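Forwarding the complex inputs:
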Amino acid sequence: MSLRRILFTLSIPALVLIGAARTASGQESPYFITYTHHMEEPGSLEVALNPVFGVGKEGAKRFLASSVELEYGVTGLWTSELYLDGQKTSRESTLFTGYRFENRFRLLMKEHVVNPVLYVEYEDITGADKIFKEVVGFDTFRGLLEPADELRHEKKREVEAKLILSSNLRGWNLAGNLIAEKNLAGEPIEFGYAAAVSRPLALAASPEPCSLCPENVSLGVELYGGLGEQHDVTLSGTSHYIAPSVAWNLPNGVTFRLSPSFGINNNSNRALVRFGVSYEFPVIGSR
Amino acid sequence: MKSNKRMSIAFAFLICLAGCAAGPQKTSAPLTAEHFSNDVMAGKKLFSQHCAACHGAGAQGTTRAPSLQTASVQGMSDDALVRFLTDGDLRKGMPSWSRLPEERRWQLTHYLKSLSKSGS
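Prediction (whole assembly, two chains):
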């Protein structure tokens, strides 16, 4: 299956979402990697498709990976998410690469200057997974040099925790995540980080209904990378990225996001271009 | 060395962007009649996008969430209502709307308060 055909296939659910959309709440941040303290509304289900197109270096093949994301607001303090991952590497097989199940718990009942959230995730993926949902340990571009058909046999059952700190200040959101990941096969704990800042183009809403207007567009930038391992916490020898990002929230609850990540050190991939389309089904469960 | 320089530039860029947050902040200063009317209209639009699914199209309440036309809500001060929208009542299922900029929470408040004046 060619990359072009996969892109076409991925666009079908996106168009279905847009066609089915009615008025719904949706005020998504432009971030792909960094989490904020904003939880899914209780009883609401968000469905998202997040393809990432990767350009490696030193002979690494281009790839298109994607995750389907189901995010549900269990309560006002607890959000659950399920991710199903897959990928297609140029001239190699198309692969389902595993799943992730995450839970986020807001720790404080009210809004504060800094709002902490605890994140816990279990993932069962293969070595061929290329979603790059975070960078930890000593992840580098060299991980993409091996053929996906070989990497698929490498099982990764991991537990990941994040401390999410997030703040809203005068229309801006600032967020920082500290990541710790442990492979259950006994490898050392790996660390990573993500930080981001974003702002809507207009803070107040206009009186008239509108789709392509500044209030519906948010711009941001993310910075993320690895922090080494348990016995060697460092910024060196791992990869780091900077990623400008934009989100367009349509009034009917559909959100489009785009974020090209650029490697900023010698260990990084050249570029990871992320797309996202999501739709929030309002209040499908009990509150 | 080269990659360290690029890392430093990236961090500096992020910090500069964060520093831009020190812009003028919206306050609850008195509005002109025209601005207030626009705020109510914008608040109505925001209400239909974010609140109507639970509270009903006219804020009359549904089985999921209470009416916002009651005396207990209409009797709240504007500041208290904005604060309530910001914090939510997470234990009872009312989400925090801090993801909306403060300006939009004020617009929602002006719309909600206009419901008692219009008698709707």
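DSSP finds two helices and 13 strands in chain A.
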